[in-house]
Amino acid sequence: MADNDNQDATGEGESGPGKEGETGVTSAIAGRAARANVKRAGRTATRSAGHVRSGARMLSREAKKILRKHRSRIDPSIVEELEATVAEIERLRGQRPNEDLAELEDQAEHLDELLHQYASFARKSALRDTIENIAIAVVVALAVRSCIYEPFKIPSGSMMPTLRAGDHIFVNKFAYGVQIPLTTRIVGEDWISGIERGDVIVFRFPLDESDDFIKRVIGLPGDTIRVNSDRRKLELKRAGSERFEKVAREKLLDKSCQAENSTQAIENCSVYRETLDEHSYEVRYRDDLRTTDPSMRTFLVPEGHLLVMGDNRNASHDSLAWTVTADRVTAAGLLSRPDIRDLTKVEHERLELHDEGHVIQANDDGSRDSARYLAERSEPARGLVLEAWRSPPIDARAIYESLAHHYGANGTTTFESLTGKDRVEPHLASFGAKLGEMRYVREEPTSELIFQAPDTDVVFRLHCGTKRCDRPSDMASRAATVLKSFEANPDFDARELLSYEYGRAKTYPGRGQAEARFLERRFGPEQTGVHIRAWRAPHEGLAVLRDAALAELGAGPLGQTMHERYELELAERAAVTDLGPDAWVVEREGVWTIVHTDETYELLSVLACGPKRCKTQADAVALATDVASRFPIVAKERERLPELLGQAEVGKLPEVPVEPRNAYYWDHLSVVGVVLDDSHSINIEVELAPEGGLDGAISARQQELSNAEAVEGLGPVAWYADTANGHTFLFTVPESDLLVELACRPGLCPDRATARALADRVSEKGRDPENFVQKSVSRPRPFVPRGNVKGRAEVIWWPTSRFWKKID
Questions:
Q1: Domain segments of the chain as ranges
Q2: CATH of the domain spanning 151-322+785-795, picked from 2.60.40.10, 1.10.10.10, 2.10.109.10, 3.40.50.460
Q3: Chain center to CA of 276
Q4: Is 692's pLDDT higher than 60?
Q5: Secondary structure of 456-494 in the HEC alphabet?
Q6: What are the pLDDT digits (tens) for 693-732?
Q7: Sign (positive/negative) of CA torsion 776, 782, 787, 791?
Q8: Which of 43, 306, 465, 583 has the most CB atoms within 10 Å of its CB?
Q9: Residue ranges of region Disordered (predicted)?
Q10: For helices 49-70 and 101-118, what crossing angle results, to 10°?
Q11: pLDDT tens readout for residues 591-634
Q12: Class of the CATH-defined domain 325-375+678-780
């Protein structure tokens, strides 16, 4: 205890600089506390409650922060008082709203004085505070401008009538996610809503990213857009869909176009209401900029890109107009149509080059290209033939029966039977009811229909493939269409009787070539003189004409039919072997008729010789022999057809002119049923100077070929594989740094040797870049990268007349 007492005594009696400082601080604190107590006695707060509370909260936070960072630099006793004052402030704040505001204000002032006197080194100066506030304001403004909203001014009229030049708009930059500044990276993409067709967006121009453009989104990734040169025909095939849809558009007759820089109406311009998905908006077309070019272009939007158009459709610099000028490779320069015709069996068939710039699939860099050749092949199931026999020189009934016989149309039918329950246009049904009895047969892959125009001697034959005329009603509708056109104008050619049939049409206009293919001469009286009818290389068919000529006499294979249906008297025919294997003689009422067919010279003569010239059958055969002797010369020289029978052969019988009204006229329409498909195709892909070099590129491509085998003589490295695409060759042309893949389907390359010949031709032409490199070519660059999109245009905020108008 003594020791402790001594220590206490010693401690109390010690003196020195340290003790004096502590005593001074303690005295100062005690003095301030005493003065503060005097000030607080009976006081009320001099500031508003909100001001006091806010100031106390801020000072408390500041003190805590200073103590946390700079406690070691402050005297412990001051630290103790600071903590006590902060604790008192927090106690008073905890009593809100019933706290003693005067006490809270005094404690806050006391804390502020302590911080000012003992911790001023850690407090912000007024200048620093101002700078920080300005910096925060700038950062917030930049954040709002970069991530939320940004104002833009419209520089041109490419978006009229939606936006006019000079409009000021706000762009929502948060709508599609947040873009990291100075990059194309999007964070939180599609948080709120994804980019939709019909959205009006602002983006960095892909060809010069220092410029901002504003356009409307038409195509999303995976969409296919088809548009004509005039931009008025716009079709969309959505990603995953199999068919194109027309973009709905309605002309607004009560709307007029305005000039770009004024509200004055302009002429030669039309406004339309267009609807695309959930968006409905107005577009306009300048009629004075209209083009007659019917060609279509197809855009396949790649992943991560968009296709955009301006609302001022044919006066907008948008995806459809963006191009770059650069050198490019062309696969068609390595393999042309003459090359294919030279090395394959394709001769006269149509050979189409596809993917020749009409389908744009990417922002082309010019170093790659592909070409696809398709050779047409006939398909009977898609064909169509219409024959029109007008005023035939043989009984029309005989022609009708002969056609039915030769084309197997032995079944009798009517328009009503063919249509059944199928719906037929009323205007066609009325004509179909007039057709009466018809002959019909359907045998895959074609159908035949033989019919006559009512109350005339005109006979029609309609032949239609079952893929074109899928149902009997399709045949009936076409027959009614033919009759409708015929009654409108009996002089219509076959191509005019049945128009608007798809496919490659061929026509045979019989009027202009009648004299070269048909002869009719008459000498003497009708029943007793001489009458000759002759056909040279007839398109109608020798057999059809021969049997019709015999049928009108009641003879031949159709004699019994003519007797049963039309009560025509039967007659016997006898072969005339002296004339050839297909010569027949029929006698009726003293007139000898010899029907002679010569397939060698493609000639048919029907010679009727009456008693004034032919007393016996022998006389008729002799006269027919004279006619047949002229077949060779007539077959060679068509203009000599009238020389088959002249005045010298008939004696003194005068020639009787054939009446013009009975002039024979036969013509037909033939729509060739052909298809272009992959079974008869060649695909070639080329790449110039591939990234990573030729060896790396061909090695990577070779891995994609199954069961590939090395090939010699086709460059230093070459491979062959029999793939689903046909005979496939993959090889390099090191002289021009070129990689080539060629695939030929069996329809064009039935064997490997044919495909190899094509590959050799490509390799040979590939050694010279002039064959496949086009200089300074304008190439489309239509697609907007997703990362270039800045945001969605939402409202107009200037001019005041359109203030806060929502952008459709």
A1: 19-123, 151-322+785-795, 325-375+678-780, 377-514+664-675, 525-653
A2: 2.10.109.10
A3: 16
A4: yes
A5: CCCEEEEEEECCCCCCHHHHHHHHHHHHHHHHHCCCCCH
A6: 999 999 999 999 989 999 999 989 999 999 988 999 999 9
A7: positive
A8: 306
A9: 1-55
A10: 30
A11: 999 999 999 999 999 999 999 999 999 999 999 999 999 999 99
A12: alpha beta
Of 156, 158, 670, 681, catalytic? 158
151-322+785-795 and 325-375+678-780 share one fold? no
Tell the residue number behind the tokens 């025509």, with chain if given.
Answer: 568
Q: Which helix (H) or strand (E) holds 443?
A: strand 438-443
Give the three-state DSSP class for 338. Answer: helix
| 736 classed as catalytic | no
- Residue 65 annotated as catalytic: no
Displacement of CA 18 from its chain's centroid (Å): 93
DSSP for 642-696, please give it.
GGGS-HHHHTTPPEEPPPGGG--EEEEEEEE-EE--GGGEEEEEEEES-TTHHHH
Tokens coding 774: 């086009």
CA–CA separation, 173 and 176 (whole Å): 7
Output the pTM of the full model.
Answer: 0.53
Average pLDDT over residues 22-47: 50
Which of 215, 237, 765, 790 is labelled catalytic?
215
Distance CA(587)–CA(595), nearest Å, equals: 11
CB atoms inside a 10 Å sphere around CB 104: 23
Distance of CA 134 to the CA centre of its chain: 54
Distance CA 675, CA 382 (A): 8
pLDDT (0 to 100) of residue 132: 64
